[in-house]
From TrEMBL:
Superkingdom of source: Bacteria
Main location: membrane
PANTHER family: ABC TRANSPORTER PERMEASE YTRF (PTHR30572:SF4), MEMBRANE COMPONENT OF TRANSPORTER-RELATED (PTHR30572)
Alphabetic keyword roster: Cell membrane, Membrane, Transmembrane, Transmembrane helix
The species this protein was found in: Asaccharospora irregularis DSM 2635
Metal-binding in keyword set: no
Name used for this protein in its record: Putative ABC transport system permease protein
InterPro entries: ABC3_permease_C, Macrolide_Exporter_MacB
GO molecular function: transmembrane transporter activity
Membership in a protein family: Belongs to the ABC-4 integral membrane protein family.
Limits of the ABC3 transporter permease C-terminal domain: 131-245, 590-698
Membrane topology type: Multi-pass membrane protein
Transmembrane segments: 128-150, 170-196, 216-237, 290-309, 586-604, 638-657, 677-699
C-alpha cells in the first residue's frame, strides 16, 4: 500500500457493504473510519504476485468492534481432506448439500489447474495422434528390420527343407526365434525407454518431477513387438513355403529384370545415369520402400503440423487473435493498465498524470487512451424487456453461482474522450456518435447490447429486446457523494447502438456479463463524482508487445494495486504448461525421427551387403568408389525427399484448411481479426534438412562395406 513503517500508524478505511435487500434490490452501505495498525502478517512473495494471482489486502478486527456498517455474516476458510483422491466428489457433494455455488466451495485453484492441464495434455487430440503415430511407425520399422533379417534366411529354409526338415518344425523354429527377439528386444527397449524418459522428463518438466512407468506403456511395447515380428515371420514363412526348394536356396535380393542395355555406356559417370541407377535400386524391394516412405510421410506430415501449429498459436495469442475471449476482445488495444480487480475499487483507483505521461513516452508505445471504467453498475429493466437469449444466460448464472436478479442486471460503464469516440465510430450500427454535449433532458449514451453467450459461445445474444434509438433506459452507478460511496440512479437516452463486433472484438469485454454503456467522459465525471482516469489503453508498435509489457511491469512495480492486462495475458498463466507441451511435442518428433533413422540406416546397410557383387562389378568396369557412394547417397536421400515432398503438401493443405475453419468460427463469433494463410516454410525446411542429414549418416555408417573390401572379394559373393 506504500505505507512505510506502518506499525502504530493510523489508516483511514472506507467500509463498504454491497448486498441485496429483501426485495432483491442492490444496495450499498459505506462509512469512513480511522483504524490503528497494531500488527502485520507477512505472506510469501508469490501471494503478492499480482500479475498472476491478484493481491487481496486484509484487515482483521475484533468481532465485537462497533463498526458503522453491518458486516456480512459469511465464513471463509480452508478444508483439509484426509485423501486428495476424491476432492472433486467432495466439493460436488457439499455444493449440493449446502445449496451453495461453485464459487463458494472449490478445490485449491492451483492444484485444480494443474490437474486440468495434465488431463488436457493426456487426452488431447495432438498427444493421442502422436502416440498412435509412434506406435504405427515403430511397427513399420520393426517389421522392415525383421523382414530384412528373415529375408536373408529364405535360402536357409530351402536348405532345411532339402534335407528333410518338416514345415511344422521350421515354423516352430521361427516362432521360437520371434519369441526370443520379442522378449529380449522389448526388455532392452524398455530399459532404454526409461533412460530416455528420465532425460526427457527433466527437459520437459524440470527436476521437481518424478518418473513413473505405466503398465500401459509396457503393454504397448510388447504389443508393437508381437504384431510387427509376427507379421514379418508369417509373411516370410508363407513366401518361402510357396517357393520350390531350389528357388528358395537360390533366393537373393537381386533385380527381377536385368537391364537390356548392359554395355559399358550405362555406367558413364553422368549424373543422370547415377540418379537412374539409384532410383532403380530404390524400388528393388517395393513393399519395403512403400512402407518406409509411408512411415516418413506420416512422420513428416505430423512434424510440420505439430510444430507449425504450436508456432501459429503462440504468435496469434500474442496478437490477441487465437486466444481466450478476454484477449481476443481487445481489438486495436494491445495492453491495459488498471486497478487490480480484487484489491481496488474502480471508483477510487486512479492513474496519476505522472504515470500516464511516462507510459506515453515509453519506447515502443504508439499511442495511449486514458478513460473511465466501472464494471459494477446495473441496468434497470423489467423482465419482459430482456431478450430470450439473455434470460437463458441468466438461468446459467443462477444455477452455477446462485445469483438472483430482480429487474437489476449487470452493466459495464465506460467514459470516453471525444478522440476515443471518434476512433470507434466505425463500430456504430445505428444512431450517431455522442460527440456533442447533451442538449436534451437526458444524457445520451452509446449502448453495447450484445454479450458473450455461454450457450452459443458467440456474441449473438442481445440483452435488451427491440431497443431503439431515443429509448430512455434507467441505470444505477456507484457514485462518490458527501465523502462516501453509494448508488446513484439515472435516466439516459440511447443515442447510438454498437455492432456486435464491438463487444466481441474491441476494448475488452472480460468483465461484461451483460450490456455496456459508453458515456462522454464529462458526463461520466458529473454523474459519478470521479475526477481522475482509472484505466489506460495502450497500443504498441508492431513486434513491441512484450518489450513494452516488461517496461510497464517495471514502471508499475510500486503501484501494488495496479495490474496489467490485454493481449497475451493467457500465456502468463498457461505459458509454463504450453512450453512443456511444446518440449514434449518436440521430444515425440525426435523419438519418432530416431526410429525412422534406424530404419533407413538398417535398410541402406542391408542393401549394400546384399549388392556387394553388383557394387564390385561397377567398380570393375571403372566406376569409382566416390561415384558408388554418390549413387547410394542419392538412393538414401530419395526416401526422405520423396516422402517429405508428399508430407509437406499434405501438411500445408491441412494446415491452411484448419486456418480457414478457424477464421470462419472467429467471424461467426463476431471477432473482426483473423489468422493469415501461409505456408509453414520454416518447418518444411527443417524436415528436409533432417532427412538429408539422415541420408548422409546412413551411408557414412556403412562405408566399411563400400571401401573395406577388394573388387575380387565383392565379385566372389554368391548369388
Amino acid at each position: 500500500m506504500g505505507i512505510s513503517d506502518p506499525l502504530n500508524k493510523n489508516i483511514g478505511f472506507m467500509l463498504l457493504n454491497n448486498y441485496c435487500d429483501d426485495n432483491g434490490i442492490n444496495q450499498m452501505d459505506s462509512a469512513n473510519k480511522i483504524f490503528k495498525i497494531v500488527g502485520l502478517i507477512e505472506k510469501t512473495d508469490k501471494y503478492y504476485d499480482t500479475s498472476s494471482y491478484g493481491c487481496i489486502f486484509r484487515a482483521f478486527v475484533h468481532n465485537n468492534s462497533n463498526l458503522p456498517i453491518k458486516l456480512k455474516n459469511t465464513y471463509a476458510g480452508t478444508i483439509y481432506l484426509k485423501s486428495e483422491e476424491n476432492v472433486s466428489q467432495f466439493t460436488t457433494k457439499m455444493i449440493k448439500k449446502l445449496d451453495a455455488s461453485e464459487y463458494d466451495i472449490q478445490e485449491n485453484i492451483e492444484v485444480y489447474s494443474a490437474k486440468r492441464f495434465k488431463q488436457a495434455s493426456t487426452f488431447s487430440k495432438e498427444n493421442i495422434i502422436n502416440l498412435v503415430l509412434l506406435i504405427v511407425v515403430s511397427t513399420i520399422v520393426v517389421y522392415n528390420i525383421f523382414n530384412i533379417i528373415f529375408q536373408s534366411m529364405i535360402s536357409q529354409i530351402g536348405l532345411m527343407r532339402s534335407i528333410g526338415i518338416s514345415n511344422k518344425k521350421i515354423k516352430t523354429m521361427f516362432i521360437s526365434m520371434s519369441f526370443m527377439y520379442i522378449t529380449l528386444g522389448t526388455l532392452i527397449g524398455i530399459v532404454f525407454g526409461m533412460i530416455f524418459s528420465y532425460v526427457g522428463l527433466r527437459i520437459v518438466y524440470g527436476y521437481s518431477s518424478m518418473l513413473t512407468i505405466q503398465k500401459l506403456s509396457i503393454i504397448c511395447s510388447f504389443t508393437v513387438s508381437i504384431i510387427s515380428v509376427s507379421i514379418s515371420s508369417f509373411m516370410l514363412i508363407k513366401k518361402s513355403m510357396k517357393k520350390s526348394i531350389i528357388e528358395a536356396i537360390r533366393e537373393s535380393d537381386k533385380y527381377e529384370k536385368k537391364s537390356k542395355n548392359s554395355n559399358k555406356k550405362i555406367y558413364e559417370k553422368s549424373e543422370k545415369i547415377l540418379i537412374s541407377i539409384a532410383t532403380r535400386n530404390l524400388w528393388r524391394n517395393k513393399p519395403r520402400t512403400i512402407l518406409t516412405m509411408l512411415a516418413i510421410t506420416l512422420v513428416g506430415t505430423m512434424f510440420i503440423l505439430n510444430l507449425s501449429a504450436k508456432s501459429l498459436v503462440k504468435k496469434n495469442m500474442e496478437e490477441g487473435i487465437m486466444s481466450r475471449s478476454a484477449s481476443m476482445s481487445y481489438g486495436s488495444v494491445d495492453k491495459t493498465v488498471e486497478g487490480d480487480v480484487v484489491s481496488s475499487d474502480h471508483l477510487f483507483y486512479k492513474l496519476d498524470d505522472n504515470l500516464i505521461q511516462k507510459v506515453n513516452d515509453m519506447k515502443g508505445v504508439r499511442y495511449i487512451e486514458p478513460h473511465f471504467y466501472n464494471p459494477y453498475a446495473h441496468i434497470l429493466l423489467s423482465k419482459d424487456k430482456l431478450s430470450k437469449a439473455y434470460q437463458d444466460e441468466l438461468d446459467i448464472m443462477k444455477s452455477l453461482y446462485k445469483v438472483e436478479y430482480n429487474n437489476e442486471y449487470p452493466l459495464l460503464i465506460r467514459g470516453y474522450s471525444d478522440d476515443m469516440l471518434k476512433q470507434r465510430k466505425g463500430f456504430i450500427e445505428k444512431g450517431e456518435n455522442i460527440l456533442s454535449p447533451t442538449s436534451g433532458e437526458h444524457r445520451k449514451v452509446i449502448l453495447v447490447n450484445n454479450t458473450n453467450s455461454q450457450i452459443t459461445h458467440s456474441f449473438d445474444a442481445k440483452v435488451i429486446d427491440d431497443v431503439k434509438i431515443g429509448d430512455i433506459i434507467d441505470i444505477k452507478i456507484p457514485v462518490y457523494r458527501d465523502g462516501i460511496e453509494k448508488y446513484g440512479n439515472f435516466k439516459v437516452e440511447v443515442g447510438a447502438i454498437m455492432k456486435k463486433s464491438y463487444a466481441a472484438g474491441q476494448d475488452g469485454n472480460s468483465q461484461a456479463d451483460g450490456a455496456q454503456v459508453i458515456l462522454r467522459e464529462e458526463d461520466y465525471k458529473q454523474l459519478t463524482g470521479q475526477a481522475e482516469y482509472n484505466k489506460l489503453f495502450i497500443t504498441v508498435e508492431k513486434g513491441q508487445l512484450y518489450s513494452v509489457e516488461r517496461r510497464l511491469e517495471k514502471l508499475t512495480d510500486n503501484y501494488k494495486s495496479t495490474e496489467i492486462n490485454g493481449k497475451g495475458e493467457e500465456l502468463k498463466i498457461i505459458g509454463a504448461q504450453q512450453s512443456s507441451e511444446e518440449r514434449l511435442s518436440v521430444i515425440y518428433q525426435i523419438l519418432t525421427l530416431l526410429i525412422l533413422s534406424v530404419n533407413i540406416i538398417f535398410i541402406m546397410r542391408s542393401n549394400i551387403i546384399a549388392r556387394r557383387k553388383e557394387l564390385g562389378t561397377l567398380r570393375a568396369i571403372g566406376l569409382s568408389t566416390k561415384s558408388i557412394k554418390k549413387i547410394l547417397i542419392i538412393e538414401s536421400e530419395l526416401y526422405g525427399i520423396i516422402a517429405s515432398i508428399i508430407g509437406s503438401v499434405i501438411a500445408t493443405v491441412n494446415y491452411n484448411y484448419n486456418i480457414a475453419e478457424l477464421n470462419k468460427t472467429l467471424l461467426k463469433g463476431g471477432y473482426t481479426r483473423t489468422v493469415e494463410h501461409h505456408i509453414p516454410l520454416t518447418q518444411i525446411i527443417i524436415l528436409f534438412t533432417i532427412f538429408i542429414v539422415i541420408g548422409f549418416i546412413s551411408i557414412h555408417v556403412s562405408r566399411d562395406k563400400i571401401e573395406g573390401e577388394s573388387i575380387a572379394e565383392c565379385l566372389s559373393q554368391n548369388d
